[in-house]
Amino acid sequence: MSWKNDQVNEKETKRILELAESVLDVEGDFVEFGCYKGDTSLLLQEILVKSDVEKSAKRLWIYDSFEGLPEKGSQDESVLGVLFKSGELAVTKREVKQRFLKAGLPVPVIKKVWFADLTEADLPERIAFAFLDGDFYESIKDSLKLVVPRMSEGGVVAVHDYTNPALPGVKRAVDELGIKNNKKFRIELL
Length: 190
Ligand SMILES: C[S@@+](CC[C@H](N)C(=O)[O-])C[C@H]1O[C@@H](n2cnc3c(N)ncnc32)[C@H](O)[C@@H]1O
Hints:
Strand content: 15-25%
Distance between the termini: 22 Å
Structural class: alpha/beta
Number of strands: 6
Shape: globular
CATH class: Alpha Beta
CATH topology: Rossmann fold
Strand order of the largest sheet: 3-2-1-4-5-6
Radius of gyration: 15 Å
Bound molecules: S-adenosylmethionine
């Protein structure tokens, strides 16, 4: 499948895929918080399909409001102003599902939900690879709180936009939760 994504650049995508491939032998599933159109999700699913882990039933779980971005909070204000408005990046769950079918890939577990409303049953028990791409402070904080307790030893949490000056809430959320020096899993800040 070719790389094409208006949200994550090629270099970042390559790194995400490299990281995901590096944890194929780690216990647990793959998750993506903020899948949008599913560009990265398709590539993650392709990795799972091509690998032997398909036999061990490693699954991909993807989450999105499918109503676009929520309201920005005060932690998200940046000098770059009005970029990233609420409701932006809305697509339907159906469209995303269709993309998997069209690509001949198994449809992952797709949850239409605000991250803050997720319950235990909506998440895999163990996670080997998590890609967090919710753009805003509350979204990253909510997803980290769900993912961290489920991370397997040796797994990877990749957080997008940590260094993006237009989305300062991402760095704030990660730094506040104090997880960068944990010894259990690796955290990659893209
Ligand atoms: C930058 S896009 C994701 C891009 C995608 N990861 C990719 O690689 O193409 C951010 C997505 O996060 C979703 N999102 C942000 N905050 C959310 C929240 N709190 N709950 C649910 N979805 C959220 C938005 O709807 C949007 O689709």
